[in-house]
Structures are given as C-alpha cells and as structure tokens.
Amino acid sequence: MQYLLMIYQNEVDYAKMEKEAEGKMLAEYQTFTESIIASGNFKGGDRLQPTTTSTTVRVRDGKIMTTDGPFAETREQLGGYYMIEAQNIDEAIGIAARIPGARFGSIEVRPVWQYNH
After folding, report:
1. Strand, helix or coil at 24?
2. Rounded CA gap, 112 and 84, in Å?
3. Which of 47, 49, 76, 95 could disulfide-link to 8, CB 3.0 to 4.6 Å?
4. What pTM does this model have?
C-alpha cells in the first residue's frame, strides 16, 4: 500500500536555523532518502518552496479565486513529502519516525486512495 508522508515544520523557526545545523539536517535527509530508496520503500518525494510562494485556488459559482499563500494560518507548514510503499500503517509510521523533521515538527502519514483502472 502507498502512503504519503507529509512533513510539517515551522518555517519561521527553520529560517532562524544556523547554517551549520541546516547543513547537518540536509545531510540527514540525504541519508534517510538513500536508505528508503535502497529498501524499495521510496516512490517519490520533494522539498517544497516556502508558503510565501504558494497560491490557494478556489472555484465558487464557476469563478476562479486565488489567494497568495496557504489557505489556513497554522504553526507548522507543509515543507515536503515522501510517497512510500509500505506493507501496513505500522511500517509507514516506522519510516515516518525516521524522517529528520519529525524531531522538530510533525509527519502526517496518510494512506493513498488507489483507484483500480
């Protein structure tokens, strides 16, 4: 089964991180990513640009409305994701717990709805 692991962290706190600490964290992410590629769990993933670059889109009564930034004000913002293959939710949670950002923010683990084509 596939799971989306969504990585949430406070962007303001991350921006204040010292360059040495940021470099160490990025190296940890590289090691983690290489490990899930080697294990066959990795299906995809990327780091996202800051929420200041995002646009929220809504369609109401056939009209497209856009808002700069995310829809909701939150303490943590979506900063990246991994799409993984895992046998069950317990394995997915175990993989999510190894993501370096779990120590500073949170990881949402959500099963992917797979359509039969």
Report:
1. helix
2. 10
3. 76
4. 0.88
